[in-house]
Write a structure and sequence with these properties.
Distance between the termini: 8 Å
Helix content: 10-25%
Structural class: alpha+beta
Strand content: 25-35%
Number of strands: 15
Length: 303
């Protein structure tokens, strides 16, 4: 298991808890009196190790230093930020509990989502407030440029996380995969999510009516959003369903799903999720933001 915590001088953490074995990624925002970079020091028992992987440097937030804590043994300890030249402490102690009896079991029920992208974009996602994204209008030249479910923020569920990694590696020499996690209580399925179990058969009761008089199947929804069934495309914008659904989930489209030349689509068991406005509200909450975790080539083995 691996978790991310983001702490700052304006939104401090007083303690973190983790299991054994475990890895925490923490972001420390701040500096010394003249801008010196803070050194991370374990001030209690050496039950954790501090590591600075090169992939976790150069975040787009000024004076944000991201590092990893690797749990070594159970117990309690503390870390703080110090200025090497003076030896003075410039952060309050952060208490760390490893595998202790007060470990919160709710962390085991976290719902996980994965987004693969370039390493630079992944670093931005680690701390930013994420808003619905769309394909730039200049790129909307034909149906293959559009997205399956329109505007939003696309992630893979735990069952399809390897596809997030494959996509990131295929499109970027320097890649990153950000994992987002929510507890069941943090997810507010309002408005009701749109869920397609299969590609061609099911017609969810809350899917839109797009062709004819019936609720849309997955293939009809995708072809509507990709403008495949229209004789011409006049470069309209990405369709926007983000206010209609908390999130949209369903299989991943391939050209042969629409009887077009090209590679077949992925098997139906591989799903994607497009988060709407209320889904992103949950993802952007301060507690959920602290759990974001960055996977790169240095730690992909723990995925």
């Amino acid at each position: 298991m691996a978790n991310f915590c983001y702490a700052s001088i304006t939104d401090p953490l007083s303690s973190v808890r983790c299991g054994l074995p475990d890895i925490l990624q923490l972001g420390l925002w701040g500096g010394g009196p003249t801008g010196e970079e803070l050194e991370i020091v374990v001030t209690g028992p050496p039950i954790v190790e501090v590591r600075f992987p090169p992939e976790l440097t150069s975040f787009p937030v000024p004076q944000l230093r991201v590092f990893e804590l690797i749990a070594v043994s159970g117990g309690r300890t503390a870390i703080e930020g110090r200025v090497r030249s003076t030896g003075g402490s410039y952060t309050a102690p952060l208490e760390v509990s490893v595998g202790t009896s007060d470990f919160d079991p709710s962390i085991l029920s976290l719902i996980k989502y994965y987004h693969g992208t370039s390493l630079s974009n992944a670093k931005q996602l680690m701390s930013m407030v994420i808003e619905p994204q769309s394909v730039p209008e200049a790129r909307l030249l034909d149906w293959y440029e559009y997205t399956d479910f329109g505007k939003g923020f696309y992630v893979h569920p735990e069952t399809s996380k390897e596809k997030a990694v494959e996509w990131a590696k295929r499109n970027n020499a320097e890649w990153g995969v950000v994992r987002f996690t929510l507890t069941p209580d943090e997810i507010t399925p309002n408005p009701t999510p749109l869920y397609f179990k299969d590609k061609f058969k099911e017609r969810p009761d809350n899917s839109p009516i797009l062709f004819g008089t019936q609720h849309a199947t997955w293939i009809e929804f995708v072809e509507f959003n990709r403008h495949i069934r229209k004789p011409t495309i006049s470069r309209p914008k990405d369709n926007d369903w983000t206010a209609d659904y908390a999130w949209m989930e369903g299989p991943i489209w391939g050209r042969r799903d629409s009887n077009l030349p090209g590679p077949p689509g992925l098997p139906e068991r591989y799903h994607q999720i497009n988060l709407g406005l209320s889904g992103l509200t949950a993802l952007n909450a301060p507690t959920a933001r602290r759990r974001r975790f960055l996977f790169t080539k240095h730690n992909e083995g723990s995925l």
